[in-house]
Amino acid sequence: MSQKSTEQLCVDDVVEIDGLKGEEPWSNKSKALFVVLMDEEVVKGNRPTTTFTKTSWNYMRSQLNASTGYNYSHHQLKNKFNKLRQIYKDFKKILSDMIENGWDPLLGTINLEEEQWNELFKVNNRAKKFRKSGYPHYEKLIRIFGDTTTTGVKLARQ
């Protein structure tokens, strides 16, 4: 199937998101849509390795372009994908560094007292960027990146 016919098939079933047209290229709404699209592609089995199939990339790009009115390039999607993977790894590390459980999966936030935050900052200085807003996409990113990233722990050979 040619690239043109693949894109034509994708445009026919555009995901409608209210209020995306006219937003900046990677607004919170467009990032949220990208995460939803990636999650759907993972569920469909279209990420056989650490990345998506060419057809999936084309589908996600056409959906984003149609929903936002912005003309994303393949390169922009790959860069955002890699950036989201790094943020996922950072947030996962923060959750593992927490002494007490303060993760609220419904809100996507970490709820800690001032003293607990200060202790967390001592062991992980990247925690500061998540203090006020948390990471609302984390639950979906677990499915998207969970089995494709390393945690920095070396496995012993048996």
TrEMBL record:
Protein name as annotated: L10-interacting MYB domain-containing protein-like
Domain Myb/SANT-like span(s) in chain numbering: 26-119
Native species: Cucumis melo
InterPro entries according to UniProt: LIMYB, Myb/SANT-like_dom
UniProt xrefs under Pfam families: Myb_DNA-bind_3
Lineage summary: Eukaryota, Viridiplantae, Streptophyta, Embryophyta, Tracheophyta
